[in-house]
Amino acid sequence: MNRLMEVTEELLQQNEMMLDFYEERMEHAKNRDYFFDTVKPFADKVKSLADEWFSLASEWVKKEQPVYLHLKQLEDTHENMTIASVTCFQPDTKEKRFKEMNQSIHYVLRSLESAWKEKESRG
Question: pTM for the whole thing?
Answer without folding.
Answer: 0.89
